[in-house]
Amino acid sequence: MMTLPGLALFYGGMVRKKNIISVIAQSAAAFAVVSVLWFIAGYSLSFGAGPAAVDGFVGGLQAAFLNGVTMRTAHGLLPGLPELLFVSFQMTFAIITPALIAGAFAERMKFSASVLFFALWHLIVYAPICHQVWGGGWIGSLGVLDFAGGAVVHVNAGVTGLVCALALGPRHGFGRDNMAPANLAYSAIGTGLLLVGWIGFNAGSAGAADALAAAAAFNTLLAAASAAIGWMVVEWIERKRPTLLGLLSGIVGGLVAITPAAGFVDPKGAFFIGLIAGPACYAGAVWLKRALKYDDSLDAFGVHGIGGIVGALLTGLFATTAVNPLAEGATVWKQAVGLLGVIAWSAAGAYLVLTICRLTTGLRVTKEQEIEGLDYTQHGEAIH
C-alpha cells in the first residue's frame, strides 16, 4: 500500500503531466528489483551475522536465498511468529526506501539508470545501514533508538536524494519554467494511503498487537496532524495562503519525524515532535532549497532527510521508559552519533553507486527527451 499505490500516486501527482507514468514506473521498479534482491541477499546482509571483521557494519550471506528460513523458524525479534513474517515485513521497508529517493531525481534520470541504481544502492547502502541499526551492528549497540526507520529509511533516503540531486544537476528550465504539480488529487489520495500504511509500519514494529503497538499507532496519527498544522501556519504567514500541497507535505513530514520515536514517546512527545517537524520540513523543502539552489524535485531531502534528522534527535529528548523500557539511557547525543554514521555511509555509498551508473547506463536523459517528457521517451506511453 505504501509504495504501490501510495508513494506512486503521491509522487505522480507532484510532477508535470508528461512525467507521471515515469515516476509511477520507478516505484514499480523499486518494488520488483528490491523484492528479488531481498530474497537473494538483502535479508541476509541486513540481519545475518557477518564475518568478524565487518560484523558491526554488514551481515553475511548465510541466509542468502533465505537458506535456513522455513515455515517452522522464528526470528528472534518476533518470538513465536514465523520468520517469513519478519522477512516480509522488513522487505516493505527495503522497498519503499529507494522509491523515496526517486523523488530527488524525478523528471530527469534515465529509467535504466534508476533500475541499476535501486539494485546497487540496496546492496551497498540500505542493507549495511539496516544491519548497523537493527541487525546487531555498531549503531544499534550504542543504544541509538530507531523504532520504525527514521534513520534506516528516511535519513538514509533523504541524504542519498540530496547526493543524487547535486550529482544530476537541475532539471532543464528549473527556476524559470512552470513546474507546478500536474494533479494534486493524485497526491492527496497517495497521502491517505501512505498514512494508513504508515500505521502498519510504526505499530507493526512493536512486533505484536499490544499496548505498545496502540501507542505507536496513536502517536503516528497525532504527529502527522500536528506537523500539518505547523507547516500550514508557517506557509500561511509567508505566502499569505495555505496550500493543499503544503498540508499534504506537512502530514508526510510528521509521519517521517515520528517514525523513529513512535514506540518510545508518549502522546505529548508525539505532539511536539510533529509540531516542530512541520516548520522544520518547510524550511528544508522551501528555504534551504531556495538558498542553495539545488533541484530536489519532490523534496526527498527536505521532507525525509530533514524530518528524519529532527525526529531522530527529538526521540532522544522525548523517549520515556513509561512507554518502552528500551528508552532507558536515551540521549540526544547518542542519537546524533548514530545519525552521523548513517549520513556518512549513505552519502559515500550513494556517490559510489551514481558513479557506477554514470559509467555504465549513464544518468540523465538528453535535453530533448527531458523537454518531451520521460513518459513517452522512456516508456512509449502517455497520459492523454
UniProtKB/TrEMBL annotation:
The Ammonium transporter AmtB-like domain sits at 2-382
UniProt keywords (A-Z) are: Ammonia transport, Membrane, Transmembrane, Transmembrane helix, Transport
* Annotated compartments: Cell membrane; Membrane
Membrane topology listed for this record: Multi-pass membrane protein
Q: Could you tell me which InterPro entries the record lists for this protein?
A: Ammonium/urea_transptr, Ammonium_transpt, Ammonium_transpt_CS, NH4_transpt_AmtB-like_dom
* Transmembrane annotation, as ranges: 20-41, 84-106, 113-135, 147-168, 180-199, 211-232, 244-264, 270-288, 300-323, 335-354
Q: Which PANTHER family match?
A: AMMONIUM TRANSPORTER MEP2
- Family assignment from sequence similarity: Belongs to the ammonia transporter channel (TC 1.A.11.2) family.
NCBIfam families to which the protein is assigned, alphabetical: amt (TIGR00836)
Name of the protein in its database record: Ammonium transporter
